[in-house]
Amino acid sequence: MRQLLLLLVVALLPMSSQAIEEPDHELIRKIDTIELRRYAPYVVAEVVVDASPAEAGNRAFPILAGYIFGKNKGERKFAMTAPVTQAAVPTKMDMTAPVTQAAVPGGYRVQFVLPKGVTLATAPEPLDPRVQLREVAAADWAVIRYSGTWSQANYTEHLQTLRTALQAAGIATEGEPVLARYNGPMTPWFMRRNEIWLSMR
Description:
2 domains, two-stranded antiparallel ribbon
């Protein structure tokens, strides 16, 4: 029992001793456990990977970490921020392929949020051509927060809860859902902060 308590204290230390920076946003409204948020613009480093939802983060992380840890012109390093987001890239149609093979999977776009004050003009150019810099425009998002594992079942369950609540409230959304992860893989599953975002029309 004493060993378990010690492990919990050690795990909590990084979370309580320093706050991880997040993009600026304000709470517009709450619907039970759902939050409607308004985000200010922010800049991200992103990469698109051809992988399953479960593997996209693992594929993208070392590529994006390389950029923020100095793999850029000027070897500038950035502090880690939160969240790391992941969303499906809409399927593209290959008009040169047979009809039965026309759907081309778009993969998954994974993003690291760059620290506040960093703009497209001041962010150093990535050395890895797979890394792209982009400003995410100001937008309103409907968000559900949950803990637990990063399993597809956990994600699907909470996405359905979010969509059901928004439909009941008469709130329309658009685009692909975004998975936002705020903790690293070493964080115990029951202490993780996960979110799903849906863009409001």
